[in-house]
Design a protein that fits this description.
A hairpin with a 3-residue loop joins strand 11 and strand 12. The N terminus is likely disordered. The chain has seven helices and 25 strands. The chain has one domain. The termini are far apart. The protein has an 18-stranded antiparallel β-sheet that branches. Strands 5-2-8-9 form a four-stranded mixed β-sheet. The protein has a three-stranded mixed β-sheet with strand order 1-3-4, with no helix packed on it.
């Protein structure tokens, strides 16, 4: 008995694992297939995945119909992928003024992570450079000195690089629409101290492969996409764990008390998660749980970014030696901020099945929240405001050749953003309503780090780890002194595995640091390489 494979009459790609017996209606078959009949017989003798292409008119039910150019031999994965990207681009095009205003406020100074750190795989060594994560390091002597990092990554936000620059929205709208890549922008924004040679690119095509016992999600070339990814603050809603300030301006500096000011800009966190049902299907489980209306097999993504001005009032002191242990340092700090901009984008995708259990489409939902202190005229945005407070504590123990530190950020917090919730309907039109987002009182983030110096060998090794209200991460790195030259290497995990190699050169009163970095491209996988530069005086 033959089975009949029901398919919708618009172009897409389905890849089914043989053996399969049946007939497939194929209106408007491409001529190069050499098939004149409207039915394709599928035989049990076929080996390997069966790739079936249809070319026809778009469904009148599809509110985002692909263009005739898209329809030429276009597989469903591509159409659905483009449909999602069109919806995302509508969000980006509306929020591009927000991103542009945030970037225009950036003073080209260094981010917190230095080039020495990048050359050691992202390792954060003990010292004042780590005071943002552990306030006790504000009183700790600078033994592992970082140079002044040249923020070469900011070059990619110039209109010369349309794939990563939202400023092209203001200089060339057409180039922005055709060339801007949201994933490339995010990748460079989270690595400001590195000029990325090949930032991650959004897949041109999204293909759902239905095997006999599992579901696969790949790009058009068959490369598997990563359905799970997390980096930074991953809890829902806003947080007082805003990005580290680009630089600090001291307003008061006594022996143990400090008061300072600084602007911040960056990504707070990104998370992509499959639902448990989708995770089981991807792992080789049954697809039956997905064949519901609506399907519980969802892929959800959230991204948060913010910009503003921060004030910090802190106290850090050397409490002296603890007998039999080592030198003890402690610190506490209160931080407040005034927000210039905040955006949170939420997206969800789920397959749609017909009454016979065959996949027919993918349902996309895109929405989120934004707040911006200044809304450019004609942008379609409305002004809002944000503010917050948080408390941090930390301790450091100096054991001579070794140093250990524990810091807790956001021990107590208060954060509020007043702005607008937005959503996209099926036609890609954005609606917005006034809303307020508030963070939780208790959302601590724990940071551990340590280092050990082998004096006789000229070798330094270190490690760090973060967990709590942020996505877990860790780093392990080493530095070897060879005359005036320093050789570095390290590995780590931040949403994906990364490594770095680097070198430093001491020339008396001047030092140079270089690093070659590698990290895993978010969502799409693959290697992304970057270069970084720093100067020491």
């Amino acid at each position: 008995m033959q089975k009949h494979l029901d398919v919708p009459p618009w172009a897409y790609r389905v890849e089914l694992e043989s053996p399969l017996v049946g007939e497939a209606p194929a209106p408007g078959l491409p001529a190069f297939l050499g098939i004149k009949s409207s039915l394709i017989p599928l035989s049990e003798d076929l080996k390997g995945p069966i790739k079936i292409y249809w070319q026809s008119l778009p469904s009148p039910l599809d509110p985002l119909q692909p263009s005739s150019e898209d329809m030429i031999n276009a597989p469903l994965g591509g159409i659905l992928g483009r449909r999602a990207m069109k919806m995302l681009c509508r969000v980006i095009s509306r929020l591009a003024p927000l991103m542009g205003v945030l970037l225009l406020g950036v003073v080209p100074l260094a981010q917190a992570q230095g080039v020495r750190s990048l050359g050691m795989g992202g390792l954060v060594l003990p010292g004042p450079e780590a005071a943002n994560r552990n306030p006790a390091y504000a009183a700790y002597p600078s033994r592992y000195r970082e140079g002044w990092s040249v923020p070469v990554g900011l070059l990619r936000f110039l209109p010369t690089f349309p794939d990563t620059s939202p400023l092209t929205y203001f200089t060339d709208r057409q180039t922005f629409k055709t060339g801007f890549d949201a994933l490339s922008f995010y990748d460079q924004l989270t690595h400001l101290n590195s000029f990325l040679l090949n930032p991650a690119r959004s897949p041109d095509e999204l293909v759902f492969r239905i095997r006999a016992d599992r579901l696969e999600i790949t790009d058009g070339q068959g490369n598997p996409l990563t359905p799970s990814f997390a980096l930074g603050a991953v809890k829902p809603g806003p947080t007082a764990l805003y990005p580290d300030p680009l630089f600090w301006i001291p307003l008061l500096g006594e022996e143990q008390v400090y008061f300072r000011f600084g602007p911040f800009l960056g990504v707070e966190g990104v998370q992509v998660n499959p639902s448990p049902e989708l995770a089981r299907a991807l792992a080789g489980g049954s697809l039956d749980a997905c064949k519901q209306t609506p399907s519980p097999c969802t892929l959800s993504a959230t991204a948060k970014a913010s910009s503003g001005l921060a004030l910090a009032l802190g106290w850090a002191a050397d409490l002296g030696e603890v007998p039999g242990v080592g030198q003890l340092y402690v610190g506490v700090r209160g931080e407040g901020f005034y927000g210039l901009g905040y955006t949170e984008v939420n997206a969800e995708a789920r397959p749609v099945f017909d009454e016979n259990g065959n996949p027919t489409a993918v349902d996309y939902r895109v929405g989120g929240f934004y707040s911006i202190a200044y809304a450019p005229e004609g942008s379609g945005l409305a002004p809002g405001r944000g503010y917050g407070l948080r408390g941090d504590v930390g301790v450091v123990l100096d054991l001579g050749q070794a140093t250990l530190g524990v810091g807790v950020q956001n021990l107590l917090s208060l954060v509020t953003w007043e702005g607008y919730e937005f959503s996209l309907d099926g036609n890609g039109n954005m609606t917005q309503t006034p809303a307020k987002r508030q963070g939780n009182l208790l959302e601590p983030s724990v940071f551990l780090n340590g280092a050990y110096r082998f004096q006789d060998l000229g070798l330094l090794i270190g490690a760090d780890a973060s967990f709590g209200s942020v996505a877990p991460s860790f780093h392990l790195g080493a530095e070897y002194v060879l005359g005036p030259t320093l050789l570095r290497a390290g590995v780590g995990y931040e949403g994906g595995f990364r490594f770095g190699v680097g070198a430093g050169l001491d020339l008396g009163g001047l030092g140079l640091d270089l690093a070659l970095t590698r990290h895993e491209a978010p969502l799409v996988g693959g290697n992304v390489y970057g270069i970084a530069l720093a100067v020491r005086f």
